[in-house]
Amino acid sequence: MEAMYGSAFDPQTKMINGQAFQRLVADETASLSKALASAFATAGISDSNPIGFDIGSTGQVELKGDHPDMGKIKALLDENPDLSGKIRANNLRQHEAAMFDVGEVHANRIKTADTEAEMLAAWRNSVAAYDRLDRTTGTTFAEGQLQLGMS
User: Fold this and answer.
1) Residue 52 burial (CB count, 10 A)
2) Are 22 and 97 in contact (CB under 8 A)?
């Protein structure tokens, strides 16, 4: 678990600190954003148009969108399996971090609910948020920034 969650994992309690994990994912995402911006610049690919990265059923990075340099981006990722692996890992970690966030919001709403009706409303809101999250896949890279969700 420590290998997956780093300092966000507490081996004594065997719990993951959601805020620490969010920071870890944010740092990894910033680092990957810089690496993508550098790789795109080196390959002569503009990052002004968004490009979506999704994970296919066999684990490969799939490109989404209508970026004019789609062929160059595919070639770049094919030639750099380490970069593809980082995109794949970050995509999954961003989604997991978003799940932590939704869970934390849900727990806080339940804790602060004073009535059964408020608890039911909190549960309904959380179910809707989890449903939206379940349909949100992939990441989008544009203007040097990588973020969860396809544009």
Assistant:
1) 19
2) yes
pTM value surpassing 0.70 = yes
pLDDT tens sequence for the chain (151 residues): 777 888 888 889 988 888 888 899 999 999 999 999 999 999 999 999 999 999 888 888 999 999 999 999 999 999 999 999 999 999 888 888 888 878 887 788 888 889 999 888 888 887 777 776 766 678 888 888 888 775 4
Residue position matching structure tokens 């909190």: 122
CB 74 within 8 A of CB 60: no
